[in-house]
Fold:
Amino acid sequence: AQKVTQAQTEISVVEKEDVTLDCVYETRDTTYYLFWYKQPPSGELVFLIRRNSFDEQNEISGRYSWNFQKSTSSFNFTITASQVVDSAVYFCALKKNTGNQFYFGTGTSLTVIP
Amino acid sequence: KAGVTQTPRYLIKTRGQQVTLSCSPISGHRSVSWYQQTPGQGLQFLFEYFSETQRNKGNFPGRFSGRQFSNSRSEMNVSTLELGDSALYLCASSYGDDRLNEQFFGPGTRLTVL
Structure:
């Protein structure tokens, strides 16, 4: 069975602080894909990043970075120098190699205080 | 390229009624997935349609059904509405083939059952 856990329900940081959102997943598959989505108050899920299970290279995109570690089944997301516009709910998700079903975590609500 | 569109955006129904939600995927996308989002259960997968055929199904009762048309547009129907069906219903589209591709989400339909 697939499962994604985001233990942090809510996080508040002051603007310009760095923040890391944790994601731990469970799967018995050897090939799978991991995703992060952002959900602003408008409700639409916005794609941030995908990573396949064979690519453990960390990635940086501007103020965003992702740390994928198969050994600990974690795919954490760090926002550097947070901004008020980063306030949203962030979801980590896992997709099996076949089919299009995403297994989402329960989300982490991030509030950046100006 | 136009994004995923969902209609209507908001809907208010009473218990026992039925409702039909519509989703138009991004041009060229053949897979449409539906998710229910509630505060208590988070994002839960309802079903996926690919080339007019249901390819995957989540653990929802038979009151929840869907279909996909030849132009890839999809509809979701909920019959005999219950209070617990109040949720944000999100539709996502993707190419749906073996390519590693993310799902693009629509803005959702907010359903309130009174």
Chain B has a mean pLDDT of 93.
